[in-house]
Amino acid sequence: MEKINQEESNCIDKVPVFNNLTYDEMSEIAMITSHREYQKYETIYLAGEESQRLYVVNSGKVKITRISESGKEQIIRVLEPGDFMGELSLFVPSPLESNAQTLEKTSVCIIEGNKLNQIIKKHPDIAIKILEEISTRLNDAENLIESLGLQDVEQRVANILLELSEGNNKINLKITKRDLASYIGVSRETLSRRLTDLQNKGIIEQEGQRKICILHREKLEDIAKLKV
Which residue windows are coiled coil (predicted)? Predict the structure, then answer.
């Protein structure tokens, strides 16, 4: 079996759906994988393009977005190393429905879908794991839709801060506040005003552009739970 290229090997190792493959099976996938470098804010693919490929983030960050008829960008999710995109095209050949753009210098491994499907037929557990990931993303998307439709702006801000804190009181934003605003469906200016309001109330403290300290978690949780 041909030796696995280090870049492709790193990508495959990071993806949970490939965790249980043997060296030879990983080699099969490595042989149908190419590697590409992208600069900050470079487009990987656009909605409407035909693509039967699985894209794996090796390093960097990628935002997945959709654009409304009015031209407003809505961030669906942010991908980090080990995350993948384009998986739906593996099961249903159809134009891509979202856009993928880097948030920083990023390297991506691109796996040819048709050839991957042949490997999946021999290892159906890969398909099961991909479907499990799709199910998780669908649940996340439904929660996002509920948040945008049922919660006011202050609730959305409180909820995203609690989510990003992961149980800690220090938040180091991995994306810009502009992208964070897009994710929760508000303008950059609206997000800034709400954060300033929370700071004036003594609930949070902002430290520069990327750091937020939660001073009163219970008050933030109360805001998140308020009914509109």
Answer: 131-170
**Number of structural domains found in the chain:** 2
The model's pTM is 0.72
How far apart are alpha carbons 220 and 171 in whole angstroms?
14
Q: Which residue has the tokens 């998986």?
A: 87
| C-beta of residue 154 within 8 angstroms of C-beta of residue 227 | no
Indicate if 63 and 76 belong to the same structural domain: yes
pLDDT on residue 151? 66
* Residue at 26: amino acid letter: M
pLDDT tens-digit profile of 124-181? 877 787 788 778 777 777 666 666 655 688 888 998 999 899 888 999 998 889 999 9
Answer yes or no: do 123 and 201 share one domain: no
Q: Look at residue 113 in the predicted model and tell me its pLDDT.
A: 85
What is the C-alpha separation between 57 and 53, in angstroms, rounded? 13
pLDDT for 146 equals 63
Structure token pair of residue 228: 């509109």
SS3 annotation, 144-186: HHHHHHHCCHHHHHHHHHHHHHCCCCEEECCCCHHHHHHHCCC
The Cα 110–Cα 11 span in angstroms is 9
State which residues form the domain around 168.
151-224
Is the separation of the CB atoms in 98 and 141 below 8 Å? Answer: no
Alpha helices in the chain (DSSP H): 6-14, 23-30, 88-91, 113-122, 124-150, 153-165, 177-183, 188-200, 217-225
Which stretches of the chain score pLDDT less than 70? 1-10, 142-151, 226-228
